[in-house]
UniProtKB/TrEMBL annotation:
PANTHER family: KEKKON 5, ISOFORM A, SYNAPTIC ADHESION-LIKE MOLECULE SALM. Residues 297-347 form the LRRCT domain. Transmembrane segments: none annotated. Keywords: Glycoprotein, Leucine-rich repeat, Repeat, Signal. One of its GO terms (molecular function) is type II transforming growth factor beta receptor binding. SMART domains: LRR_BAC, LRR_TYP, LRRCT. This is Leucine-rich alpha-2-glycoprotein 1.
Length: 347
């Protein structure tokens, strides 16, 4: 027999009825994807947990469902986040905060969400990151900080990101990176540092990651690459060095890149390159199958390029921007396409 506490009576029903009606009302509205406490957001519930999507909202949504696994608060011009914004959603896996105006992040923001896998902060106004932001982010795999105002990178910024595979820092104002910046990012496979103000790369920058596949360094102010810069990355497939100010590339620069599919050196200040620089590129495994670009460099077409001509001869079917790869000197060959000089050489 049920105890009196559990036995229904007319009085119980009276107190229960409003709650039942409320629950019903909630069910009906959530069937339309809207829950009253988050009326500015779209809430979709599934067996895995809730997905909450908020666009153009005046404030950070609260309270969030305890089972939120995916949260987007985007295009909302938010300038700050409450320090305990994520306190209730311990199961959060993806957090998308792009296109706001966040200037800084609370240091403890991510402490409650230890299973977070994706964090997207594209197009905000971040100038820096608090030192222990990622202390609890051992599960984070994708971190996008593209299009912010990050400068003065600190070695502590990325501490704790033991599982990170994809790091996007493009379109910031980074002038330099501290030594050891990437040291704990063992599993990093994509690194985008494009369109910053980098003039040099610190010695040993790529010593931490051991399986980098895509590296973007385009649109910086790099003049030279230190010895052994890419040495630790035998699995690199794609390398963007275009739109820099490289004047010189030493002969060991690419020696270890046997898996390379694509190299972009266009729009630099290269007039010559050492013999055999390209000889081992992508060899024997990949053979630069996705092509290479040497255009918009002031090539001086003399004997020093003989090795490059020979290599181009064998690989011209993979060459991009052939028409924009021209000699800047000597005078007699000025304006000629490198490929035509290659043909002259072979006569
Ligand atoms: C955010 O700011 C932009 C630019 O000022 C404006 O066009 C947009 O309407 C704003 N959005 C919201 C949700 O306030
Ligand atoms: C070369 O790079 C500079 C600096 O990034 C850029 O402003 C310019 O438009 C580029 N030129 C070409 C031809 O791509
Ligand atoms: C190659 O470049 C020259 C000079 O810049 C230009 O006149 C010509 O149209 C280009 N040809 C092609 C096929 O793009």
């Amino acid at each position: 027999m049920a105890s009196p506490r559990h036995r229904g009576s007319p009085q119980d029903l009276n107190t229960c009825l409003p709650r039942i009606l409320l629950l019903l009302a909630l069910l009906v509205t959530s069937a339309h994807g809207i829950v009253s406490s988050l009326e500015e957001c779209l809430v979709l519930r599934s067996a895995e947990g809730s997905t909450v999507s908020c666009y153009s909202v005046p404030r950070f949504p609260s309270p969030l469902p305890d089972d939120t696994v995916h949260l987007s608060v985007e295009f909302s011009n938010l300038t700050e986040l409450p320090p305990r914004a994520l306190q209730t959603c311990k199961r959060l896996r993806e957090l998308h905060l792009s296109s706001n105006r966040l200037r800084e992040l609370p240091q403890q923001l991510l402490a409650p969400v230890r299973g977070l896998q994706v964090l997207d902060l594209t197009h905000n106004e971040l100038r820096g990151l608090p030192p222990e932001l990622f202390h609890y982010s051992a599960a984070l795999r994708t971190l996008v900080l593209r299009d912010n105002q990050l400068q003065d990178a600190r070695v502590t910024w990325l501490w704790g990101l033991r599982s990170l595979e994809h790091l996007d820092l493009a379109k910031n104002r980074l002038r330099a990176l501290p030594r050891g910046f990437l040291i704990s990012l063992t599993y990093l496979s994509t690194l985008d540092l494009g369109h910053n103000l980098l003039e040099t790369l610190p010695h040993g920058l790529l010593l931490g990651p051991s399986r980098l596949q895509r590296l973007h360094l385009e649109g910086n102010r790099l003049r030279r690459l230190g010895l052994g810069t890419f040495g630790p990355q035998p699995f690199l497939r794609v390398l963007f060095l275009n739109d820099n100010q490289l004047t010189e590339v030493v002969d060991s620069t690419f020696w270890n890149l046997r898996e390379l599919d694509m190299l972009d050196l266009s729009n630099n200040s290269l007039s010559s390159i050492p013999p055999r620089l390209f000889a081992s590129l992508g060899r024997p495994a990949r053979d630069m199958q996705d092509g290479f670009d040497l255009s918009h460099n002031p090539w001086v077409c003399n004997e020093d390029l003989r090795d490059l001509y020979r290599w181009l001869q064998d690989n011209k079917h993979k060459m991009f921007s052939k028409n924009d790869t021209r000699c800047a000197g000597p005078e007699a060959l000025k304006g000629r396409r490198l490929l035509d000089v290659v043909d002259l050489e072979s006569l």
